[in-house]
UniProtKB/TrEMBL annotation:
PROSITE patterns: HELICASE_ATP_BIND_1, HELICASE_CTER
E.C. no: 5.6.2.4
Reactions catalysed according to its record: Couples ATP hydrolysis with the unwinding of duplex DNA by translocating in the 3'-5' direction
Domain Helicase ATP-binding: 26-194
Domain Helicase C-terminal residues, every copy: 218-364
SMART domains: DEXDc, HELICc
PANTHER family the record matches: ATP-DEPENDENT DNA HELICASE Q1, DNA HELICASE RECQ FAMILY MEMBER
Keyword Cytoplasm: no
Family to which the UniProt record says this protein belongs: Belongs to the helicase family. RecQ subfamily.
UniProt GO molecular function: helicase activity
Name this polypeptide is given: ATP-dependent DNA helicase RecQ
Keywords: ATP-binding, DNA-binding, Helicase, Hydrolase, Isomerase, Metal-binding, Nucleotide-binding
Organism of this sequence: Sphingobacterium anhuiense
InterPro entries in the record: DEAD/DEAH_box_helicase_dom, DNA_helicase_ATP-dep_RecQ, Helicase_ATP-bd, Helicase_C-like, P-loop_NTPase, RecQ_Zn-bd, WH-like_DNA-bd_sf
Length: 633
């Protein structure tokens, strides 16, 4: 590894050495090779593209579907003195235009893009004029229809190859089966197969899957016994609050987290947990991406995840410090039934998908022959209620409409208000002199933020209201007045997903839906859920079962999961019962009834099992209905 890489790592990230496989991956990128890197959750994937991008001239384009993670990484890079920007759904065209200009003419080193942004011809055209040094594709499994989290917008990544054919791809993921590994390289048109895989083995994790009628009570006992901090994953937002309240009422410091919280609340809750002011965070699967907390002692699932890939990622947030930690899944028969029912609901008919499209166009009042390129805030819950639709089939219909190129739908994420002055310093000063009512607000904005003449900046209306001693509504009214006078641009906050129509509206009866793809996805999803249920019901060792799923065949029992502990206990119990039988029968022959009655260990079923085994191995002889220890062997 070159001195440059180590010095960059030390200068910006403060580390003296790389984690396993990072060096090899970085060198592969520096050698201009297309590279697929599989590193477990917490394995340091971002360093693998950030370090080489800092060495090479030009800009690194990072594609990720996780907007919250994207914003966190941009903030972190800026905090350590590296210029980075992000373009995601929710930004207006003027903002996107300014960001892209800065990427071409400025000193930006990282441009983060959500994959649906690659549908935009504006974005594609501007990338042509950028000096790109690397394409980094995070969550790369999303490009594969064989993967557990297929994202139709990821199919647009091939356009990046067309724009700059000689720029290498670095595809990154934490989980992928052998078929997904092959599919990622195929879809990204790797010039040559090139994969770096870190073993999926986490030998400090004691995986457990326990059938439990009283899941809340068992969860409480697990948390009390294990100590330390942890995560509890639940199915929906309502349950995050209910379970957090239950834990607090039982004397455990806990809080809840889900994607519906405003950004500041999410940040505050996450920080309190990271700093161990909150011991347990109860969350939906929106929590955890990009969070590197080393001392998590347990991750508890109160519902069954839909795939082993998802489970491995979430469970893998435990024990990153290498010390013993426990991923625990608590389930009931009802949970298994729900998983199978959701599978059935996730693949609606073509007619239903066409109907959802029709309702969407009516909902947003899109005329026939129009609508291409329009973007709306989309409250999917109110849409479902308005048209009396079922939730799971509707969400699935939206995904299939996206795959067929009719629309894109971004994840929900809080985007704060943005503001920019549209006049220069001199013009603004004249406004302050001429209109006294705007003077205090303008001064407050100028004192609080730099660059407000050049770019959109995020603002907090409540802070200005507090500083100026007026109401939030008055601040918004003053800002809107400045906009009306063409002195400023203002974009209010949003926390809704963004729905974009990619084509003009057509008659829904003529809407093309790829039914062959739907059936294939159903087959893939069925296999994944069967693997999840087999993990729960038929594993001999939890860790070994996970490793086999990800293609690591020659593995031993872990000796620390619930099944290994039960088996080891059973082996020890069998051994002790055998010693007790030997002692009794060497002293005096016994009838089977008397022998079973004299044994002090185990229940009758286990006692009989040991006796039968000893007879099969000729350790015990039966003479006239009496059992005798065979001293001749």
């Amino acid at each position: 590894m070159s001195v440059d890489s180590i010095s960059i790592l030390k200068q910006y990230w403060g580390h003296d050495e790389f984690r396993p496989l990072q060096e090899e991956i970085i060198q592969s990128v520096l050698d201009k090779k297309d590279t697929l890197a599989l590193l477990p959750t917490g394995g340091g994937k971002s360093i693998c593209f950030q370090v080489p991008a800092m060495i090479l001239p030009g800009i690194c384009i990072v594609v990720t579907p996780l907007i919250a993670l994207m914003k966190d990484q941009v903030k972190h890079l800026k905090d350590i003195g590296i210029e980075a920007v992000a373009i995601y759904s929710g930004l207006k065209s003027r903002e996107v235009d300014i960001i892209l200009d800065n990427c071409i003419f400025g000193h930006i080193k990282f441009l983060y893009l959500s994959p649906e942004r690659l549908y935009s011809e504006l974005v594609q055209e501007r990338i042509k004029h950028m000096t790109v040094n690397l394409y980094a594709i995070d969550e790369a499994h999303c490009i594969s229809q064989w993967g557990y989290d297929f994202r139709p917008s990821y199919l647009q990544l091939s356009k990046l190859r067309e724009i700059h054919p000689d720029i290498p791809f670095l595809a990154l993921t934490a989980t992928a089966t052998t078929s997904v590994i092959a599919d990622i390289q195929d879809k990204l048109a790797f010039k040559k197969k090139n994969v770096f895989v870190k073993s999926f083995l986490r030998d400090n994790l004691g995986y457990m899957a326990l059938e439990e009628e009283n899941k809340s009570g068992r969860m409480l006992r697990v948390i009390q016994k294990l100590g330390g901090s942890g995560v509890v994953y639940v199915r929906n937002r309502r349950e995050t609050q209910e379970i957090a309240r239950f834990l607090v009422n039982n004397g455990i410091s806990a809080d809840f987290y889900h994607a519906g919280l405003i950004g500041k609340d999410r940040d505050d809750k996450q920080e309190a947990w990271m700093q161990n002011r909150t011991r347990v965070i109860v969350a939906t699967n929106a929590f955890g991406m990009g969070i590197d907390k080393s001392d998590v002692r347990f991750v508890i699932h109160l519902d069954i995840p839909e795939s082993l890939e998802a489970y491995y990622q979430e469970a893998g947030r435990a024990g990153r410090d290498g010390k013993k930690a426990y991923p625990v899944m608590l389930y009931q028969q009802e949970d298994k039934n729900r998983l199978l029912k959701n599978l059935e609901l996730s693949f609606p008919t073509v007619a239903f998908i066409q109907q959802v499209y029709h309702y969407l166009c009516n909902h947003f009042q899109i005329p026939y022959g129009a609508g291409e390129g329009v973007v709306f805030d989309f409250d999917v819950v109110s849409f479902i209620k308005k048209y009396k639709l079922e939730t799971i089939p509707t969400l699935s219909a939206l995904k299939f409409l996206e795959k067929d190129g009719w629309l894109t739908l971004s994840e929900a994420v809080f985007i704060p208000s943005r503001f920019k002055f549209e006049v220069n310093h001199q013009e603004l000063y004249k406004i302050q002199v001429q209109y006294e009512r705007y003077d205090k607000l303008i001064k407050a904005i100028l004192r609080s933020y730099g660059g407000v003449f050049d770019d959109y900046i995020s603002i907090n209306e409540y802070e200005f209201a507090k500083k100026l001693g007026v109401s939030y509504e008055q601040i918004v009214s003053l800002i809107n007045a400045l906009v009306k006078m063409e002195i400023a641009s203002y974009i209010p906050p949003t926390d809704s997903p963004q729905l974009s129509f990619l084509q003009d509206r057509v008659d829904y009866k003529n809407l093309y839906v790829d039914h062959v793809f739907i059936r294939e996805r159903q087959r893939v999803k069925t296999v994944q859920i069967e693997a999840m249920l087999n993990y729960i019901e038929h594993s001999q060792c939890r860790s070994q079962s996970l490793l086999h799923y990800f293609g690591e065949q020659n593995t031993l029992f872990c000796q620390v999961c619930d099944l290994c502990l039960i088996r080891n206990h059973r082996v020890k119990l069998h051994h002790n019962i055998k010693l007790e039988i030997e002692r009794i029968l060497l002293n005096e022959a016994q009838t089977i009834h008397d022998l079973i009655g004299r044994l002090s260990l185990g229940d009758d079923e286990i006692k009989l099992e040991v006796v039968r085994n000893l007879i099969d191995h000729h350790k015990i002889k039966v003479v006239d209905d009496r059992y005798i220890w065979n001293t001749n062997i």
